[in-house]
Amino acid sequence: MRANPAAVLAACWHHEGRGRGARDMVLLPYRDRLQLFSRYLQQLVMESLG
Fold it and tell me: What residue numbers bound the domain in which 48 lies?
């Protein structure tokens, strides 16, 4: 499972949501240099969820 980032993210969401299906995540880039990272992460999550 550690080799699969989507599975790790799903496990984290399940753990933090206490198994209720809640999937909330906020990423606030505090520097302009991190704006591309937030877009990359958003794309990664959307592709992982289908």
Answer: 25-50
Q: Looking at the domain assignment, is residue 45 inside a domain? A: yes
User: For the chain, what is the domain count?
Assistant: 1
CB-count burial class (<10 Å; 0-12, 13-18, 19+) for 10: middle
* Digitized pLDDT (tens) for each residue of the chain, 50 residues in all: 778 888 887 788 778 777 776 666 677 777 787 878 888 888 887 787 76
